[in-house]
Every structure is written in structure tokens, then in C-alpha cells.
Design goal:
9-stranded antiparallel beta sheet; about 350 residues; 4 helices; Jelly Rolls; mainly beta
């Protein structure tokens, strides 16, 4: 079987042995040793992600949703999307509303369709928890590519997010929406063997860094006013922390990239223009892990699960995955040898 590296080279040349079609060059390489790779640099993979332009785009929810993380229940068959590019996360279930809508004003030029994600009951179906819960809408990357993307290929994801006017946000404190990656690594867990024959035991670990649209009530904020910001998950200790302030509603461009040193790089800017180095928020090794491969990306929809108040109406558009081909990797390594050293 071909390695992911070989497969991606084949894709970059428009020749694939596993039926994934072609890719197109997206934008020039842009990186900095201190800020990492700008998401969207390199080559866009056409087989995954979505622009929601198909007027026949549809999601059949097949409720009730899964809630495995809470009560251990996986409720098949799960949501089904007409183009096969998304699926319901079994841990927490699909949002109650997954609907193609007209692109709000100010979106990407030429965009006529985007996706509304919203939920009323985010916990166990039929059982209110009265605390913040979340639903997941997951991009199908692994199945459509036939495997994971190694971080040696510098995977990144870019998405456009429409935030409604602040007065339309749900009243609950904390995260309202999340844009996240699923990354894999190897961690040490105890030892195997005995005495001088013992050695560290290794096991696979999946983790989910991301950016959350966060609301802090006036009584909890330092300014004494309601504050909005992009919250980062996470630092090396596993704690979330405030990133870029959300100074205005409307369209935002978000991006997350991963470099061969296993580091995660977070970017955000208001509007729909491509990201630049100036949009860098922070670079971290979340949970003190070094990423080894990229599995997928997904969106979280969050509310207080009280059966009365819907989650903040968030709209997403043009969500795509990128990587660096062999020539781009060579240029990147020459630009920043330490960042692109394989660990």
C-alpha cells in the first residue's frame, strides 16, 4: 500500500490510485519561524471540505442523535449528507439544524450558499441537563483520502464563519461555537516489561485543539462589560485561554495549521480575505503533545441544554484542507529548517 506521502505526491500531480480526483494550487507559501505556516498555504485538496454551492445540498438528520460521550448511546444510522463530505459525530451527535442557506452579505465573492448550524437540545435526546453541552458536525477526511495526513505535509484548514449581531447570541456564558482539528500522536503510558527489561509503553492518542467563539458576561469580565473573543484550546497544560478579541460580528476567517515539529498554529481575522502572518494568534503544543498526523476537522455547536434557548445561529462557508507538496516542502524547509525538522 502506498504511504500517505506517496499518495499526496500523486494527488499533487493529478494522479491518484485511490479515486480521490485532483487538487488545485491554492496560494503561495507563507511562513515564519515564530508563527508557523499560514493556513491555506500550498495545495488545496478538492476531495474534502465544502463550499456549499450545490443548491441540492441536503443533510438528513436521522434523529434522535448520538450521545455516546454522555450516556454511551450511539443511535444509528446517524446523519447523512447528500455529498458524503460530512458526518455526525457519535460522541455528541449532530446539530438540530444543518441547513444550506443563502450566503449572508459580505461573504466570499461569488458565494451563493453557506451552512447554518444550530441546536436546541445538545445533550441526551429527551433528557435536559441544564448545563453547556455540544453537538458536532464532522468533515469526512480519512475515508475520502484513504488515510490520515502526516504532519510532515503541513496540513492546514481554513474556514469562513459568520457571527450574528451580538444581541442575537445565546445568553449563556462560555463557548458558543467551536472550530477544531482532530490530531493524532503517540504518548507514553506507564512501562512494559520488568526490571532492567522494562521500557516506556507507547499508545496512540487523539486530541482536539481549536478556536471557540466565547462570551464573557459583564459581571465576570475585567472590563465590567460583555466581552467576546476567540478562545484557544489549549496550552501545554491543557488549559484554554483567551486569544483574539471578537471586536465585531459578521464574517471572520479562521485557520489552523500543523507543522512537522508537531506544533499547532492558530489564526483569525475579521472579513473573508485570505489569512496572512499578521493574523497569527499563537502557536502551541496543546496538552504538551507533538502532533504526528491530521485526522479531520469539525464544528461544535454549544448551548445551555435547557430545552428553551437555541444556540447562537452560526453560519459557516468555504471550509477546506491544504497541504504542502514536495517542492513546497523543500522551500519551507529552506525558509525555516528548525520548524520543518521531522521529530
Amino acid at each position: 500500500m502506498r504511504s500517505n506521502f506517496t499518495r499526496l505526491l500523486a494527488l499533487a500531480m493529478g494522479v491518484s490510485s485511490f479515486g480521490c480526483g485532483s487538487v488545485v494550487f491554492a496560494q503561495s507559501l507563507s511562513l515564519d519561524a515564530a508563527k508557523g505556516l499560514v493556513p491555506g498555504s500550498g495545495t488545496r485538496i478538492e476531495q474534502v471540505g465544502d463550499d456549499f454551492e450545490d443548491p441540492e445540498w441536503k443533510c438528513d438528520l436521522h434523529l434522535p442523535k448520538s450521545s455516546q460521550e454522555i450516556d454511551g448511546q450511539v443511535r444509528s444510522p446517524g446523519a447523512k449528507v447528500s455529498n458524503g463530505r460530512w458526518y455526525e459525530g457519535v460522541k455528541r451527535g449532530v446539530p438540530d439544524v444543518v441547513q444550506r442557506v443563502e450566503t449572508p452579505a459580505g461573504g466570499l465573492e461569488g458565494s451563493s450558499g453557506a451552512l447554518l448550524l444550530r441546536s436546541l437540545q445538545t445533550g441526551v435526546p429527551g433528557r435536559l441537563s441544564y448545563k453547556n453541552q455540544q453537538d458536532d458536525f464532522v468533515c469526512d477526511v480519512e475515508t475520502r483520502l484513504g488515510g490520515k495526513l502526516p504532519v510532515s505535509q503541513c496540513p492546514s484548514v481554513v474556514t469562513r464563519i459568520y457571527l450574528p449581531p451580538f444581541e442575537e447570541w445565546n445568553s449563556h456564558a462560555g463557548a458558543h461555537f467551536g472550530f477544531r482539528l482532530s490530531l493524532g500522536t503517540t504518548k507514553l503510558s506507564g512501562t512494559s516489561g520488568r526490571g532492567r527489561f522494562s521500557s516506556p509503553k507507547k499508545e496512540a492518542e487523539t486530541y482536539w485543539p481549536g478556536l471557540f467563539a466565547d462570551k464573557t458576561p459583564a459581571k465576570q469580565s475585567k472590563s465590567g462589560q460583555i466581552e467576546y473573543h476567540w478562545r484557544v484550546r489549549s496550552d501545554a497544560r491543557g488549559y484554554d485561554f483567551p486569544g483574539r478579541p471578537i471586536t465585531q460580528p459578521g464574517w471572520w476567517t479562521l485557520g489552523i495549521s500543523v507543522t512537522p515539529d508537531g506544533q499547532v498554529h492558530y489564526f483569525a481575522r475579521p472579513g473573508v480575505e485570505n489569512l496572512t502572518l499578521e493574523d497569527h494568534i499563537v502557536s502551541q503544543f496543546p496538552y504538551n503533545y507533538r502532533a504526528e498526523h491530521f485526522k479531520t476537522f469539525f464544528f461544535n455547536v454549544i448551548n445551555g441544554d435547557d430545552g428553551k434557548n437555541w444556540s447562537t445561529p452560526i453560519i459557516v462557508d468555504d471550509s477546506h484542507v491544504y497541504f504542502l507538496d514536495a517542492e513546497q516542502l523543500k522551500l519551507a524547509a529552506e525558509e525555516s529548517p528548525a520548524t520543518f525538522q521531522r521529530r
